[in-house]
Design goal:
alpha/beta, Rossmann fold, formyl-coa transferase, domain 3, 2 domains, six-stranded parallel beta sheet, 18 helices
Length: 381
């Protein structure tokens, strides 16, 4: 139940699919909002992911628990008018189409806001609603590449495919911030507004320190050689004898000194901040040292050390991590499935499984005042 959660009573109409929009509305649902997901007759593509999944694939389940599903074919006669009418029963509408798609359907932002002045409309798109590339196609990897995240993360071996969807998830987070800010403004003005979020721009937020320094001071950005991307031996990855890795993030001198003391090499601490060849020499010594024993040996040897050093975990290990388990990061749904919670701790999570495709179509339309005859005209059984 969502009673007692901060957004209890808030109603959200979700026209998004894939990852960014559904993650944004998942956060809103975890805060207590009622999220109704409008799907095409074929359903959100993540219902079939990973490829070959049954109707409710694991990707879909992880992003859409606690929501309701209604199905309408937006290209069918009368469907767009029905959605325009339906939108009046919601506080927030989130859409993830390319700019112009909703306009062609008769559901453009101006149309929505003219019909429902209190409605907060959030548009999540690759490059935003304006600019020369607003219609350009993309996915998370291409947005990260465009934003410089992929290039800056590359070391001597060159860039690689990032392990996480920074643009998609970052865009979702900024969408939620924008939606909540717009709702606060609406409480004062009684008017909604458009929240325009570009996923490529969201990816630049993960380079905020570096791009800001470059813009204001002209500092060059050097992949693998700057302060926070491997340029110092106190802040980089080290491979162990069994092919695993340790993340050494001992950025402050007191942490790096403590690490060097524990390793029996206190003389390395000061030289690690010198830069240039001296720092590279420290890096080579630590690299050789960590390569002499497996990860388990280093975990035992460094146990209890307060120096910002962690093993690089696999996703399977993360799912069994004692700290995350103690915090309730992994939840057991009423359907018996184990899922990842969002990192919000404002009350108990609503307990509801992901919806079957179209399971709530009649219920949602009935709540909005549609008659059985009107539903039949829309092709709703």
């Amino acid at each position: 139940m969502s009673e007692g959660l901060p957004l209890a009573g808030l109603r959200v109409l979700d026209l998004t699919r894939h990852l960014p929009g559904p993650y944004a509305t998942l956060l809103l649902a975890d805060l207590g909002a009622q999220v109704d997901k409008l799907e095409e007759p074929s359903g959100d593509p993540t219902r079939a992911l990973p490829y070959g999944a049954p109707e409710t694939g694991t990707y879909f389940a992880g992003l859409n628990r606690g929501k309701r599903s209604l199905v309408l074919n937006l290209k069918a006669e009368g469907a767009a008018a029905a959605v325009l009418r339906l939108a009046g029963h919601y506080d927030v509408l989130v859409e993830g189409f390319r700019p112009g798609v909703l306009d062609r359907l008769g559901l453009g932002h101006q149309t929505l806001r003219a019909a429902h002045p209190r409605l907060v409309v959030c548009a999540l798109s690759g490059f935003g609603q304006t600019g020369p590339d607003r219609l350009r196609a993309g996915h998370d990897l291409s947005y990260q590449a465009r934003a410089g995240v992929v290039g800056y993360a590359g070391g001597a071996e060159g860039p690689g495919v990032p392990g996480g969807q920074l643009a998609d998830v970052g865009g979702a987070l900024f969408a939620v911030v924008g939606i909540l800010a717009a709702l606060c403004a609406r409480a004062r003005t009684d008017e909604g507004r458009l929240v325009d979020v570009a996923l490529a721009e969201a990816a630049t937020a993960f380079l905020h320190l570096h791009l800001s320094a470059h813009l204001s001071g002209g500092l060059p950005l050097r992949p693998g050689r700057d302060l926070l991307n491997g340029g110092l031996p106190c802040y980089r990855l080290y491979r162990t004898a069994d092919g695993r890795q340790l993340a050494v993030a001992a950025l402050e001198p007191r942490f790096f000194s403590a690490l060097c003391q524990r390793l029996g090499r206190p003389e390395l601490a000061e030289a690690g901040y010198a830069g240039g060849e001296e720092a590279e020499a420290v890096h080579r010594e630590l690299e050789a040292l960590f390569a002499t024993a497996p990860l388990s040996t280093w975990e035992a040897r460094l146990a209890g050390l307060d120096a910002c050093v962690e093993a690089v975990r696999t996703p399977e290990e993360v799912a069994q991590d004692a700290q995350f388990l103690a915090r309730g990061l992994f939840v057991q749904g009423p359907d018996g499935e184990r899922r990842l919670a969002t990192p919000l701790r404002l009350g108990p999570l609503p307990e509801a499984p992901p919806p079957a495709l179209g399971a709530h179509t009649r219920q949602v339309l009935r709540e909005a005042g549609f008659t059985p005859e009107e539903m039949q005209a829309l092709g709703v059984d």
